[in-house]
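pinging the channel bc i need a second pair of eyes. not urgent but kinda urgent?? the chain im working w is below, pasted from the shared doc
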Amino acid sequence: MTQRTAMPERGPGRVRCHVCGTRWSVRPRAPGRRGDEVEACPGCEAPLRLAPALDEGTARGLVLLAAGFAEERRHHGTVGRYLAEFTRSEHEVDRLLALAASIDYDAWAADNARRLARRDDARVRAVSRFLPRLAGLADSGALTEALKLPAARLKRRYRAEHAHHLAVFARRTTRA
């Protein structure tokens, strides 16, 4: 597992580029290979980006971070970094924002109560205490506003990267 996410380390296998759709095989990192070397798509040179499936848990983490929940801030830093860590494209940013907007805070509170009844957990207890504030921010629209600017910045960056890598892909396919 990586330190920052619950994603497994990249192992051998085939991956599909998030920009041009090229499929290629990746190899596990050799013991002597530096950790900051990024594998790139052979078709468009886009860096390999692995992201977990977007689900309600990912959206919950996003809204906790946007509302200023201390543990999420320590773990992920900023909303922009969180979005970049869990998405690969503009479409995925929009999907994650839609998931965040559709969170049912009453169901979340009930789920936390069930979890606490089974086993005491300090994080679940802290989130349960924070939920009324979070629901208030969501109802007032402040949460949506806190997500707009970082999402717009990241989407601009994704759009520029996408255009650049598609241009590289087009040059390479016209030469071949």
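so Residues 37 and 141 are 41 Å apart (CA to CA). and Residues 1-9 have pLDDT under 50 and may be disordered. — does that match what u expected or am i reading it wrong
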